[in-house]
Amino acid sequence: MSLIRINRPEAGIAVLTMNRPERLNALSFDLVDDLHAALDEVGADNAVRVVILTGAGRGFCSGLDLRTIGPSSVSAGLRPPAGGMRSQAHIADLGPHLRRIPQPAIAAINGPAFAGGLALACACDIRIAARSARMCVQFVKVGVGGCDIGISYTLPRLIGGSRAHELILTAREFDAAEAERIGLVARVVDDGQALDAALDTARTLLAYSPFGVTMTKEVMWANLDASSFDNALHLENRTQILAATSGDVLEAAKAFAEKRPPTWGV
């Protein structure tokens, strides 16, 4: 049985739920395997336009399950350090995998998001947190470096280098209110409402051109690493011309004139 539930509550939306509630959805190797498989499935499904990632029960994801440390499915038969490197890369690739899927990914942080759980949330495009959710970059607390699963890349880009250094080095817990104040989450909602709020945001995205939304995600991530303002503009310009050839711009103008919602192409 998969440790990731895939639900399609309405057309265009897929909800991926990490399903180890008894362990606050901690990352076992089986869960990592299943999350990769689920991202492959929804990423290749052209009917899915927005993906929501959340956790079952009272937690989002409490990080690596230290009780399950050992060889993963991708490193079976390999000796250290090769086996360890392959297992590490497999876990760490969850962040880039969330980035690679064409659909925007929304993290509905319904409870604790620690270590790898926070890293997964940071790799999503939008984050919404329940009021009681607590977060922590706790890697350094368990005897390894504080930078893992892409957190040293994503967190400084979301909240700035100074704040990211402090959170990563001290590994202190912080609450949803602070996460909103520093710009890590877009919204804080009442407990039990994180998924509903994520669904509302997903519906907003569904009202826009599918190609336009996909290109927005792609360009935003690419331009986080743009070497110059000019290079960022060149990518934007090319994308806008590509989008203009889809017919969606003409449809948007026609819909505006006719006072109706646009009918977008796939």
The named CATH superfamily of the largest domain: 2-enoyl-CoA Hydratase, Chain A, domain 1
Per CATH, the class of the largest domain reads Alpha Beta
Helix count?
Answer: 11
Arrangement of strands in the largest sheet: 1-2-3-4-6-9
Architecture of the largest domain, CATH level 2?
Answer: Alpha-Beta Complex
Helix % is: 40-55%
The multimeric state of the shown protein is single chain
What percent strand? Answer: 5-15%
Helix-strand string: EEHEHHEEHEEHHEHEHHHH
Query: Radius of gyration in whole Å, from Cα?
Result: 19 Å
How many domains make up the 3D coordinates?
2
- Can you count the beta strands? 9
Alpha-beta classification:
alpha/beta
Fill in the CATH topology of the largest domain. 2-enoyl-CoA Hydratase, Chain A, domain 1
Q: Mean of the pLDDT scores? A: 94
Unreliably modeled segments: none
- Major beta sheet, specifics? 6 strands, mixed
Protein name: Enoyl-CoA hydratase-related protein
Family: Belongs to the enoyl-CoA hydratase/isomerase family.
